[in-house]
Amino acid sequence: MAFELLKWHVSQAPVLVHADPDAQFHLETNASNYAYSAVLSQKQTDGRHHLIGFMSKSMNPAERNYGIPDKEALAIMKGLQNWRHWLEQTCLPVHILTDHKNLEYFAKPRILNRWQMRWLELLTHYNYEIHY
User: Fold this and answer.
1) pLDDT (mean) for 10-29
2) For residue 67, what are the CA distances in angstroms to 47, 51, 73, 76, 91?
3) Domain total for the chain?
4) For the chain, which has fewer Cβ within 10 Å, the N-terminal or C-terminal residue?
């Protein structure tokens, strides 16, 4: 999973760049049954996206019981929280890239469970767009 997120970043030099608070951020997330990961990047002057940071973590036993959409949403929330010092209240929306289209439930009215309600409240602090 982590390899998939990093494979296109590896061939680019330099490997890590400094974040520009005025440029648009891209957050790529993914989750499996046991772990989640996120990659934060920005487009640089060469026109390509370069890596700012990477995180990966094993899920605790309670998180492993989440359904697939909730595991994918957990990866987004953990990525946003990990880099909140850069991503909260940005002028340009953070482009969140995920491979799970069912996460559009955050944008539609429906009955949410407890942690989805908490995540929805946390998302109000971010200017973001979810792309699939």
Assistant:
1) 81
2) 37, 29, 10, 15, 33
3) 1
4) C
